[in-house]
Structure formats: C-alpha cells, structure tokens
C-alpha cells in the first residue's frame, strides 16, 4: 500500500491538493480500512488552507488518469514485497492506460511476450547495478519504445541496456526468459505491425451492453457519445451493403425495449460478470463476450443482438475515426479468450478464467479456450429467427 500526496496549482495560482491511497491486489480489506485513518490525517494536513482535501482509494490496475499524472505519467507495479523485488530478476510489460503508460510485472516467460508491447527484462547484479534488456515487439510504435527507454535508464542509471528486436533474440536473452523453443510470441496481424504508436488509440476498451423494458419514445444515434468515450445505443441505420439486415432488431428496439451501452474504464478481469454481455475492443479485433449466465437474464436475446450490432458498426467507425490500418474483425467468443487477448489485460489470473465461478456454475471449464464466430454470421441467424 502507498499514500501519494499531489499538490499543484491551477491556472489562476490556486493551491490544490489530492491524496491517493493505492492498494495492491494482495492487500486484505481489513488492512485497507485501518490504513484509511492514517491516510485521512495526511489528507487533512495536505489540504492546509482548503476547505477539504479528497482522499481517493485506488485499487491496482484501476488507477485514474489523475493518479498517473501525479506520478509523472508512468507507473511501475511489481509483485511481492519490496525486499524480494530488489534481489530477484523480473519482467515488465508496458501497456497504455488512461492516456498514460503502465509497466506491470508479468511472468518471466516467452509466453508473456506480445508483439504490440515493449518489455523490460531486468536481472539485479548488485544494489547499484542491474542488467537490462529492452525487448521491442514488431507492433510497437515510437512512443512506446521511447517511454520504455526512459524507464530502462531509470532502472539502471549509467549502466545502459541492451535492445532486442522481435525475431532477433540472442541466446543470452532467451535463456533469461526460460525459452524452451516450444512457445511462440503473441503476434499482431501483419497489417497492424508497426502501427501501434498512438497509445490512445491502441488502448483496449470494454463496453457493457444491457437491455431494459419500457423504451424511451425518442431515438438517438448510436455514436452520439463516441467522442466523449461513452457511446450510447439506439439502433442507427448503416449502409445495406456493409451490414446484415437488422430491420427486425430495429423494430424491437422501438417497440419493446431499449439497450444501453456503457464503457468501463479503467477495467480489469473482475469486471467481467457471468450474467453480463460485453464488447471488447482489442484493436485488431472487436470481440462480443456473452457471459455463461446471460441466458438467465430477462431480454438477454436483445442484449446479445444489440452487442453484435454495436460491435459490427463500432469496428467500421473506429477504423475511420482512429485511422486504424484496417477494419477490425468482429467476432463472438464462445469459450475462453485466446492468449493474445489475455495478455492485453493488465491483470489476468489464469486460475480464475474469463468468468470466474460463473463458468463452473454454467458447466464451462474455467479458462477453456473456445472458438469464435464472425458477427455477421451471428446476425444473419438472428435475422432469420
């Protein structure tokens, strides 16, 4: 656990203070409650001259953008205790997070490598010297690599580091990540290699789709709130040449129910509830994730259909507005997520699986990787039903 005090001045030179209590994912709830007493005292002291200073309780991997800004825009999270982290070798994965960059410790294995992200592999030699490797995936852009170089220099001041390009790994590097020759790197599609330099557009996004009874009388555009990063659904019209016939779904939207789409940001694996229906923007793919207990909910058919329609239209719009190298493929996930998608989560526990205990309740094997179906094929079946 860490307490961070951020004191800054506004444009009109008004003094402001924010206090954050950062809680790691291994901290017990009782410990957090006890620490809040101390954190609140620090917040009162930091807010001298102010009416009140807000204390923010932050969970690991759910940090807001303001927290990253208070720490300079880059945050590193390590596993275990500080005493252990000073002695043992480790590997960090750099991912975009809320417009900033997060470096999280991952398993020191080749299976953790993804061509879209940069990695830092470190082996402490003494308290003052550390051997550093910077692994650059083929899908990394200049922004990602530049930020990783800065962190590498901070981790080993004056000692330098070795840069390793994907596909040109040395024997020393492969030995450091325990490569057996059987594991492959998670690849990005050929069209996307070298096109992930914009951290804002390469961030993974998660949307939850819900269907409710008693619809509103007015209809608004699906992408009205896109630029505010909070899209809302209301069954817009799309070109007939690109989108499957969805006239039936549109009539149901006006007559029987309304669907709402809300973005969860930041999000973690814990946000995926087995009763929900989600759409995951994984940059090169737009995935529809129906929970294993979704069929137990009322109007679940409508929620699933709207999720497929949204994924299809969202893929087309994101390609044009965000200048993506190609229109992402829209698919429905039938089982667990493939390895190249799991690595995009800042925290992913394999033992928990995609839906946690909900998978067991529905008869699915936790973590089992299933197949995927193209969204257009699913929409075609829905329209025929």
From TrEMBL:
One of its GO terms (cellular component) is cytoplasm. GO terms for biological process: actin filament severing; actin polymerization or depolymerization; barbed-end actin filament capping. It comes from the Eukaryota. It holds the Pfam family DUF7904. Residues 1-79 form the DUF7904 domain. GO terms for molecular function: actin filament binding; phosphatidylinositol-4,5-bisphosphate binding. SUPFAM superfamilies: Actin depolymerizing proteins, C-terminal, gelsolin-like domain of Sec23/24. This is DUF7904 domain-containing protein.
């Amino acid at each position: 656990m860490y307490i961070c005090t951020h004191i800054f001045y506004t444009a009109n030179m008004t003094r402001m203070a924010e206090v954050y209590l950062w809680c790691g994912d291994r901290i017990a709830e009782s410990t957090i409650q006890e620490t809040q007493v101390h954190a609140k005292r620090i917040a009162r002291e930091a807010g001298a001259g102010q009416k009140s200073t807000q204390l923010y309780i932050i969970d690991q991997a759910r940090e807001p953008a303001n927290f990253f800004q208070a720490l300079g825009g880059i945050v590193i999270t390590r596993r275990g205790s500080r005493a252990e982290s000073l002695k043992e070798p480790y590997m960090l994965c750099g991912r975009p997070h809320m417009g900033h960059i997060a470096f999280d410790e991952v398993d020191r294995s080749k299976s953790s490598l993804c061509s879209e992200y940069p990695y830092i592999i470190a082996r402490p030699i003494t308290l003052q010297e550390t051997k550093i490797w910077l692994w650059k995936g083929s899908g990394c852009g200049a922004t990602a690599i530049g930020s990783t170089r800065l962190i590498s220099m901070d981790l080993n001041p004056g000692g330098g580091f070795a840069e390793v390009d994907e596909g040109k790994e040395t024997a020393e590097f492969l030995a450091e990540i325990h490569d057996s020759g059987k594991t492959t790197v998670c690849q990005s599609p050929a069209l996307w290699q070298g096109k992930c330099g914009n951290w804002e557009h390469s961030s993974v996004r998660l949307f939850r789709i819900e269907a409710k009874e008693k619809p509103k009388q007015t209809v608004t555009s699906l992408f009205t709130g896109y630029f505010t990063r909070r899209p809302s659904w209301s069954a817009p019209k799309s070109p007939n040449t690109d989108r499957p016939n969805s006239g039936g779904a549109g009539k149901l939207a006006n007559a029987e129910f309304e669907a709402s789409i809300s973005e969860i940001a930041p999000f973690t694996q814990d946000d995926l509830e087995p009763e929900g229906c989600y759409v995951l923007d994984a940059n090169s793919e737009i995935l529809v994730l129906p929970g294993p207990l979704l069929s137990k909910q009322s109007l679940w058919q409508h929620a699933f259909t709207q999720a497929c329609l949204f994924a299809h239209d969202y893929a087309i719009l994101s390609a044009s507005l965000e200048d993506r190298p190609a229109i992402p493929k829209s698919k429905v996930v039938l089982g667990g997520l493939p390895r190249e998608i799991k690595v995009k989560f800042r925290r992913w526990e394999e033992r928990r699986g995609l839906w946690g205990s909900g998978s067991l309740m529905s008869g699915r094997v936790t973590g089992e990787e299933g197949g995927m179906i193209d969204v257009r094929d699913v929409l075609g079946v829905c329209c025929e039903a």
